[in-house]
Amino acid sequence: MACTASTSKVAIPRPRTRSRRARLAGACVAACVALASVTSASAQAMFEPPANQVMLGFWYDSADPYYDTPDTINQKLGNNVPVFQLSQQIPLPAFNYTTGAGGAAPESLIERSATDAAVFLTIYPTTFDAITDDDFTNLAKQIYDYQANLNRTVFLRYAPEMQGTWMTYGFDPAGFLQSWTNMYTIIKAIAPETIMVWAPNTPQGYPYGQQYTAYGALSAANQALLDTNGNGELDAGDDAFSPYYPGDDLVDWIGLSIYYKGVPSDIQNNVQPDGYCASIITGTDPADNSAITEFYQAYCASKPSKACMFAEAGAAFHVNDDGPASQTQLQQAWLKDCVTSQTMLDRFPRIKLYMQFEYEKVEDSNSGTKDLRDYRILNVTEVRNEFIADIASLSDRFTWAQSRAPPTSISSAGAPAATNSAGSSVIQAITATTRPRPTTFPSLFGYTSDGTQRAEWAELGIMVAAGAVGAWTVMRTL
């Protein structure tokens, strides 16, 4: 409905009465105000930070020999990180009391940070066929425990990097779409506030060498989905994302795995080209300037009800390479180009979360050799200090978690407490808490101050009042 008020003049003014045309015009304006308020409120992703603010999240390695925790990350950074990564498999393996493997993700580590940071839960299927409805139901109950009992915002990143055979479930768009739809339906029914994150891999190098024997072995349905340019084969001209996209009604946030591992070699320490991340998300491979599938416009700028993120990101320092760049030079270049760049933040305002991959790990290089790569930016004093200074220079552009008292009793990380009975489940042990459940107005992470609550209620009241006035005015004209 077009909302335009009449501008025609009335010959004899009547200051105490309004013509039918004026009443209709007023009703139209009031309705437009109400509609604009609703549209403005709905044209955002779930739990999206306000205005131009962005969030910085962290993956952390709590295993031997690193023993990182959310608390140590916060201490090193000097700020309370608002989002922390956890992961687990589905179907969920039983917890192994000897090795500590399996079981639900150790959310208790986030509890110990004494903040209201969100849980970023990545779920890795073994295979889609192995997952039952009960598996999704159990996952939903676990997430609901985080939300209702621990008052945590939860991002759920299901089956990430689904385009590649390096994942046991990868390179199966038909299977992925069916599993995603089932997952979404079951989890949203039980834990509707869960933020569903669809997160493919970078389009660089797509289709990742899978266009030969691997493509030929696929079903006809999968081949048809993947051959987006209709030339009868899988090649670099096919869309790296669309065969796997579940649809706007089944996605809340959209992520991308994006790394710098070296140009031109992925085993040498070279500083990245200027504009590296911007090139990738706008459809150009920085390695050779070739065209790749465009990401930002298609999945961020054109979807105002979605927010985007770098779901896992970082720059790899090759530990066994002598140069030419040092770890400080290499990682400062990454941060200044991709994370703390004012230009980057302003040019791509729909990217609202950067998840830093704070790991050191051995990976396979493009040539098949083993390469030890250190992605940690808080491990080198010069990198950390410069990063902290750059964040401070951006004023309040980054938003942080708030302090919050931890529960008085927390189970050990990932394992049931020793005093639990044999019948206690891993999930019950991890989510056990004596903290009273808050009853105040919810905000981005947990619950707001009294002043913010009043402002949020006032804003909600204005929106409701505008709608009521518009509806009342329309009714009077009928």
Commentary on this structure:
The chain has 478 residues and is of the alpha/beta class. It has two domains: 20-42 and 453-477; 54-399, TIM Barrel. 33% of the residues lie in helices and 15% in strands. It has an eight-stranded parallel beta barrel with strand order 1-2-3-4-5-6-7-9. The chain has a three-stranded antiparallel β-sheet with strand order 8-11-10. Strand 1 (54-60), helix 2 and strand 2 (83-90) form a beta-alpha-beta unit. Helix 1 runs antiparallel to helix 14 and helix 4 crosses helix 5 (173-190). The relative contact order is 0.15.
Short overview:
By secondary structure, the protein is of the alpha/beta class.
Q: How many structural domains are formed by the residues?
A: 2
Low-confidence segments, given as residue ranges, are 1-42, 411-478
What are the secondary-structure elements, in order, as H or E?
Answer: HEHEHEHEHEHHEHHEEHHEEEHEHH
Q: Tell me the name of the CATH class of the largest domain.
A: Alpha Beta
In this structure, how is the largest beta sheet organized? Answer: 8 strands, parallel, barrel
Approximately how much helix is present in the residues?
A: 25-40%
Set out the fold topology.
Blueprint: H1 20-42, E1 54-60, H2 70-77, E2 83-90, H3 108-111, E3 118-125, H4 133-148, E4 154-158, H5 173-190, E5 195-198, H6 213-216, H7 220-226, E6 253-260, H8 276-281, H9 296-301, E7 307-315, E8 317-318, H10 327-338, H11 342-347, E9 351-358, E10 360-364, E11 370-374, H12 381-393, E12 398-399, H13 426-431, H14 450-477
Parallel strand pairs: 1-2, 1-9, 1-12, 2-3, 3-4, 4-5, 5-6, 6-7, 7-9
Antiparallel strand pairs: 8-11, 10-11
Helix pairs in contact: 1-14, 4-5, 10-12
